[in-house]
Amino acid sequence: MTANDQSASKFDARGLMNWSVILAVTLAILVAGRSFLIPLAVAVLLWSLLNALSNFIQRLRLVGRHMPRWLATTFAVLLLLLANYVVYVILVNQADALQKAAPVYQANFTRLADQLTEWLGIEEMPATAHILERLNVGSLFTRLGGVVGGVIGNIVLVAIYVGFLLAEQRVLPGKLARLHRREERAERTHHLALEISRNVQRYMWIKTVISMLTGIIAYIILKLVGVDFAATWALIIFFLNYIPNIGSVLGVIFPALLTLVQFETITPFVYVLVGLGSMQFMIGNVIEPALMGRSLNLSSFVIIISLTFWGVVWGLPGMFLSVPIMVTFAIICSYIPALHWIAVLLSADGRTFGPQKE
Fold first, then answer.
1. Which single residue of 69, 273, 274, 278 could bond 256 by disulfide (Cβ 3.0 to 4.6 Å)?
2. SS3 251
3. What residues make up the domain containing 322?
């Protein structure tokens, strides 16, 4: 082996070790700092959504004129606060009803389990009996309430972050321009920030509109069938729709399973399963691609990997944040020559967000 080969081998080993250390430290920071990073990430996404909503309001003409930016932002904040209030009212108004219905659902679940064991010709299934002893639907709702309470506890912190981001967004372009003394690099950094902001805002806006449409249609279907707590399920389906691929499936399975323990016949179950399944298929395969277009251009496999990774690292909030984080990462890589190959691998067809290679 020549001296050059030995030098290259040492360089590759050193580079691999450096990258391994960087990845390990980054992962440790993500896990250890999740209580700080999750509210911050949520605040950035809400800030992006507020800007997207503000841009939409500003494009509307009021008495033949466009609305001033400050007024459009004020309306956007008020609409977001109104949406949060509606969510709060739905959860509070139906919390007591959920607790009262829990024993009935548990009894119906036990009856269905007995019918299943009888149909299978098994006198008793030890595993099922053990599950039924430990299953307490009321406690499940209590735990769910604890999770919601934890989220509400972070709302104040998220609101503070969003407020400061809105206050400083006017000076952010100037800060970015001063990151580099060379005008060319400063302009490139500024363009990168605008590209990230534009794509994340577009994703959040379109995803929110599609999720609202999904929730409204789901509410109509569940109400027509007579499913209990249709408003709560519509709200859950709205939030689940932010989770790529898996969220739409869960948004069909969960309400459909409720019908099995609510009704004595299987007909409502079939109605809900077919109705919600058809809706999710049409929205996910026709409407959403038509609105999203090729703006994200992320590989489906990469989305699943991102969903799994952030779900493991940050839990359920990470699953909601997975695609915006991946979009941001793909854009950054597309503008950095040394990382452009990563952007190509993350894309669906090899086309990246940044300047295209000839």
1. 273
2. helix
3. 296-358
**Domain check: are 289 and 309 in the same one?**
no
Q: What is the pLDDT of residues 265-315, one digit of tens each?
A: 788 889 999 999 999 999 888 888 777 755 567 777 888 888 888 888 888
Shared domain for 164 and 77, answered yes or no, is yes
Cross-strand bridge partners of residue 66: 61
Spatial distance between the Cα atoms of 325 and 318, rounded to a whole number of angstroms: 9
Do 330 and 261 lie in a common domain?
Answer: no
β-bridge partners, 298: 347
Mark whether 259 and 282 lie in a shared domain. Answer: yes
How many folded domains does the chain comprise?
3
Structure confidence by residue, pLDDT tens digits, 86-101: 887 777 777 666 666 6
Residue type, 15: G
User: Partners of 61 in the beta sheet?
Assistant: 66
Asked if residue 352 and residue 256 are part of one domain, the reply reads no
Beta bridge partners of 62: 65
Residue type, position 162, single letter: V
Return the beta strands (E) in the chain as ranges.
Answer: 61-62, 65-66
Give yes or no for a contact between 47 and 162, defined as CB atoms under 8 angstroms apart.
yes
Q: Using CA of residue 52, residue 55, residue 61, residue 67, what is the dihedral sign?
A: positive
What's the one-letter identity of residue 81? L
Position 189 in a domain: no
What is the reported pLDDT for 114?
63
What CA–CA distance (Å, rounded) separates 193 from 39? 21
- Check whether residue 158 and residue 241 sit in a common domain: no
